[in-house]
Automatic annotation (TrEMBL):
Keyword Iron attached: yes
Entry keyword set: Heme, Iron, Metal-binding, Monooxygenase, Oxidoreductase
Name listed for the protein in its UniProt record: Cytochrome P450 hydroxylase
Keyword flag rRNA-binding: no
Organism lineage string: Bacteria, Bacillati, Actinomycetota, Actinomycetes, Kitasatosporales
Amino acid sequence: PDITAADAPAGCPAAGPAPALFTWEFASDPYPAYAWLREHAPVHRTELPSGVEAWLVTRYTEARQALADGRLSKNPVHHSEAAHGKGKVGIPGERSANLMTHLLNIDPPDHTRLRRLVSKAFTPRRVAAFAPRVQELTDRLIDGFAERGEADLIHEFAFPLPIYAICDLLGVPREDQDDFRDWAGMMLRHTKAGQGGGPRGGVAKSVKKMRGYLAELIHRKRASLGATAEPDEDLISALIRASDHGEQLTENEAAAMAFILLFAGFETTVNLIGNGIYALLRHPAQRELLQKSIEAGDTELLATGVEELLRYDGPVELATWRFATEELTLGGQRIAVGDPVLVVLAAADRDPARFTEPDVLDLTRRDNQHLGYGHGIHYCLGAPLARLEGQTALATLLTRLPDIRLAAEPDDLRWRGGLIMRGLRSLPVEFTPD
Ligand code: HEM
């Protein structure tokens, strides 16, 4: 149902016209609608374009609270509509591919066990050692268009970088990585408005192929693993070997884990790079500040800057689905058992009750505990890798193409209309050839 001024709690200032949600106009700039919701209906029940009814949580305090609330399960079996086959939630093609056991779909104690095991393999140290490879990949991609003086930064840069990076980290042989690029491209192209990437044939097929490939790769690697770990062992081998109190991942769990790393780390990072560059190109003073600090060899502003870009226009607009396992009250609203709850990270991160001048991009912002990577037990496992890729991509681009500028009117840019993610379809730029 549409939201009306009547939804405003007593004592609120005149609400004005209710914003339309999930339209194309909303997709290009959802922030005014989120400001309205935060003020007038901070925990709001609405019908999503897929027909599923869900609660949207838009204030920072309630968003953080919901993300850490153990009564909100990640397991879709708790969805009240799941039994009627109405609730289209999760990864497209997931059900058929039997990928249900990944981290974003499970609760403790299973989640605790799997997260502990994967954390032994996917360590900050492994990510730090990967930095030279990310730099090499970044330079190679820029080499591909630097002489042309123009490029589409989504297609030629933000999209391939994370997919090649994760493939490399996992240990997918180079000669097979272009297949992943194609499958991932299919998934990205068909993210449909409001459906969280609804299960179209092509997407489901790509998911199935990726899954099948990873299962086979894991099987082969498991068979060929030696008795002791190699110092430069890939992440898949480390996942197979990881153990905790004598427990190890099963082959199926390792495959689901590799898949979720790919899935969770791909479109998110595409959008971090895409939205990040776009925001910088639209804020020349901030961009100049960053460029000067990079030139001076200072990495501090780059680090706080990438966090601010995540807060200001982050890749994950809504956290992934949660379902109430018991009745609870959130922001004064009664949430019934089985109700889906969607935490709107993009709205919480612009909450004036938490951030000073939240609509201003300030790369020097210090007090910046944004929710862009989530919060609580499902806090992003790949945050160190995302930071490495985001910082390397932005710094290298601004250094190699210092006069890079938008080659389109902002109003002509199109945003992908998926429910969970926020990102541009394309980002045309021009620059003096390198
Ligand atoms: C979880 C954001 C990159 C792997 C999450 C969550 C968020 C998030 C918001 C929590 C979702 C929820 O609670 O519903 C981001 C952003 C990224 C990024 C903004 C890029 C800028 C990555 C990368 C990887 C990754 C590069 C791995 C290669 C994961 C995994 C989870 C997760 C495995 C599930 C953790 C769990 O359930 O315990 N991410 N992510 N992410 N992310 Fe990321």
